[in-house]
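Reopening this one. Same input as before:
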Amino acid sequence: MLLGMETVELARLQFALTAGAHFLFVALTLGLATLVALLQTRATFGRDPVHQAMTRFWGQLYIINYAMGIVTGLVMEFQLGLSWSGLTKFAGNAFGSALALETMMAFFVEATFLGLWIFGWNKLNRWAHLTLIWVVTLTAYASAFWIMVANGFLQHPVGHRVQDGVLHLGDFGAMVANPAALVAFGHILSGALVVAGFFMAGVSAYHLRRRTAEQDFFRKSLRVGITVALPATLVTATFGGIAFQTLQPAKSAAWVGNAGRMAEAQAEMVALHGPGDYLPPVAWVQSGAMTMLILFALMFFFAGLSFLLMLFRPVVRGLRIWHWLLTAMIPVPFVAMLGGWIFREMGRQPWAVYGLLTTAEAMSPVSAGQMRFSVIAFTSVFAVLIVINYWLLARAARRGPAGVTLGDRPIEAAVPVATF
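Same output, byte for byte:
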């Protein structure tokens, strides 16, 4: 298949695979950081050993995913320089500040405080340690925010000026207040809570179905996961509905499949930019959006049903078919997030910076052969990283609280026999 593709198509395929894979790590990291911070808050104020054990267990899963997310992010950034030098040359002066701020947040502030949190168990007082995880969570939000500011600029460039044929930042406030960034940030953040909520509920259901020893531990974890996932699904849908009002004309026309509106959008682009095909791939836009919407309906229905079922302790303890379905739901939010990402990014085509720089113009001067090698190399690396992350997460999740090494004290001593 790669042999018949043009250079620009190969570059787009590479970026789609690497960015999409990295996006999955980010979604779970953002959501789990929030849940771990909430669990530790409950444990700190209430001095509850069960919630303390929950913080350690889910915190260890968070650390595994965070570490692999950092690695995939570094690998992804390499291909930005290799394949898209035209983009950085033309627009880097404008949106590069947002990327720089994201790097400072993720690799300096967030990573530093996470290290203090990891190694500060039983060394710092409980209030200082609690403050650390909230700083980690808030800096993770800030990191995601600056990424969405950069992406929002590509979707709807504002706050820039043109000088010597390249873009420069003219109004930082306008770039930060870009609706294409702010709405998307809310959508991503709430979607990450959906991902983490279903992940926590699914892993907990796995242990409840297998009748592992820490039943009270996983009953509480399941309830936390569902309690977060249900409202987060509604908030995600709300931001998604608002985002539909900020769509580019061509993307909006492709989504509804209105031939007349697509012709109008094409004519407007031709009038502004000259001859060319300015319509996004309709099939990709529609399939991405439909995947997202259908899975949202499934998640909302299942989260609502699960919320009702979890009110009855015998059901939480013994309904194995529900436990099995909850575990099977773990990948569904990830697929929905990918569907939404495809809808957002494919709908921008053929523009790298909407209305200013095409994807072909953003390419580095590389040959098709070089791009084929690059696609194979990057895809192979990411495939290995994804398999390793899945294996590490699955192994740690299956072992349960007894296998946790986060902190100095053995986790077995922190899990009491208690009733819900």
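So the earlier flakiness isn't reproducible anymore. For the record, The chain has one domain: 7-248+281-402.
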